[in-house]
Amino acid sequence: MSHKAGFVSIIGKPNAGKSTLMNALVGEKMSIVTSKAQTTRHRIIGIVNEPDYQIVFSDTPGVIKPAYTLQESMMNFVQGSIIDADIILLVTDINERYDEHDVIEKLRKTESPVAVLINKIDKSTEVEVKSKIVHWQETINPKVIFAISALHGHNIAAVMQFILNNLPEHPPYYEKDALTDKSERFFVSEIIREKVFKLYEKEIPYSTEVIVTAFKEEEHITRISAEIIVERDSQKNIIIGKAGSMIKKVGTYAREDIEGFLQKKVFLELFVKVIPDWRKKDNYLKRFGYEQ
Ligand SMILES: Nc1nc2c(ncn2[C@@H]2O[C@H](COP(=O)(O)OP(=O)(O)OP(=O)(O)O)[C@@H](O)[C@H]2O)c(=O)[nH]1
């Protein structure tokens, strides 16, 4: 049986109705919904698994697929302007007068299929809907425009059909049972990575990888150990900081987010390890999931 899988970016201004749309689209079929799993690479807001497809919803425009090579990942991260998803849904509020120009610029450049969803049509007239459709045709000329009401479920089935029609043939990106220990580990390592990106300067984050080495669930607490891997001793010293001050920050911030994500108390232990030039070594790249 063929399998489809892909990344769907839901973008749009605050309050446009993105969460309401997500709920309308997938509702209880969602395996993971967490606003806590925010990472530098992608903020996954939900994964829908069916026997023959997997849809990964993200609300970060610069989504990067986990299987990309490190170099490509870094390029995309640095440029940050490419909307790299298999399908893009731009959610707009029909009553919004100022549309985001930077997003529109990016959408013009992307090669992925774009659907513009004009939302909240229950609060507008047919004339307004028609003029908005013309407006969007003129600004980005997307593959398709849907006039919807996420709140009232109007035209949602058509949006879902659009997603399924445009989802590429691909094996699943994540475990089909997306709440397995494995995917929790993945998110935990991404949360720690995010803190490294936030707390350290330029070259450090790119020389860093995080591996969760132990993940033990006890009744009231989850005990997690993770290694932060760098390429040189000098980087190790920077990661640790004066008298451990920096690594302590990473640990504290990461633990707070992981607790939010797992909804459990967490004991987090971090180790810093040097693997000289790990980025040039194929076997490490494979282990870290950068293999293509
Ligand atoms: N009338 C009407 N209201 C809607 C519709 N869709 C969403 N809303 C309302 O718009 C408000 C914002 O919706 P959200 O789904 O939270 O918007 P969001 O884009 O996720 O917002 P952020 O999380 O701030 O980015 C809520 O009060 C929704 O109930 C719709 O189709 N019609």
UniProtKB/TrEMBL annotation:
Chain ranges of the KH type-2 domain: 200-276
Domain called Era-type G: residue spans: 4-169
Binding site for GTP: 12-19, 59-63, 119-122
Family annotation (Gene3D superfamilies): 3.30.300.20, P-loop containing nucleotide triphosphate hydrolases (3.40.50.300)
Domain of life of the organism encoding this protein: Bacteria
Ranges for region G4: 119-122
Region (G5): 148-150
Stretch list, region G3: 59-62
Membrane topology reported for the UniProt record: Peripheral membrane protein
Location of region: G2: 38-42
Entry's family note: Belongs to the TRAFAC class TrmE-Era-EngA-EngB-Septin-like GTPase superfamily. Era GTPase family.
HAMAP family per UniProt: GTPase_Era
Protein name (Swiss-Prot/TrEMBL): GTPase Era
Annotated organism of origin: Parapedobacter deserti
Gene: era
